[in-house]
Amino acid sequence: LQIETHLRGALERGEFEVRYQPLMQLAEVQVFGFEALLSWHSPVLGRVSPGDFIPLAEARGTIGRLGRWVLREALGQMRRWRDQGWSDGCVSVNVSVLQFEAPDFVTDIQEALQEQGLPGEVLILEVTEGALIRDVPSSVHKLAQLRAMGVSIALDDFGTGYSSLSYLQQLPVNIIKIDRAFIRDLSERGTAFVQAIIALAHSLNLTVIAEGIEVNAQRDVLVALGCEAGQGYLFAWPMAESEVAVYLAGVD
Ligand code: G
Ligand code: G
Ligand code: NA
Ligand code: MN
């Protein structure tokens, strides 16, 4: 209830910020993009995690506005990175179920790209399987339209949902993000799971991004298993816009 009260008007008061976490090519340890992560700093409650306020924004019907704002922030940022000479990077934006289900979702993405004069190839949309399986034919249609625009679709938190693999077969996604729960447990048994996920993904021509890489040993195992990409505190924490500029200057 507290959160709900303070969430009202928070966007207008400028309490939200988008932070960026590097997406890395694992073998070369090279940044190829950033995941945009919404962050809310309430003057009263302090930092509130998206896990806590996104469901409330969905219930209140304000997620559409918030989602459009994040998308435009992230693409505006991408525009500035490109103007500063970082020409081959991409930005990954999380999409909530209700946002994805809105009838104007695809046209809004198209407009946001056009506003910044950006090709679809710079954008990854992260969607959970829960969002995609509520109406499979409609999801297939929307995803196909986005893919035709050059936009990549990442299945977020892969392996934690309830849906069967038959959905994966039908949905035109091109990236899967292995949930960090799998990366945390790289015991013999845990490694077997990760290996199987990577093998399945590769046989379907999907790119794999491993989440939550915190130590070098995890990166080493993933590289050995042929996992091409990852993110996590080992490489970098989510950063403010100003920190990204410094970070990019340091890696070039
Ligand atoms: O509490 P924590 O910070 O771990 O929560 C992160 C969660 O919030 C992740 O599931 C992430 O996908 C989600 N998230 C982060 N930014 C956004 C956003 O801009 N929109 C949506 N819908 N979810 C986001
Ligand atoms: O569900 P999603 O993968 O979008 O969640 C992203 C969340 O994961 C963000 O809140 C981000 O801060 C967090 N995160 C990023 N890297 C790591 C990591 O290495 N370890 C842990 N525990 N969380 C991470
Ligand atoms: Na995500
Ligand atoms: Mn995830």
UniProtKB/TrEMBL annotation:
Residues 1-252 form the EAL domain. It comes from the Bacteria. This is Bifunctional diguanylate cyclase/phosphodiesterase. It comes from Deinococcus sonorensis. The chain holds residues 454 to 705 of 710 of the full protein.
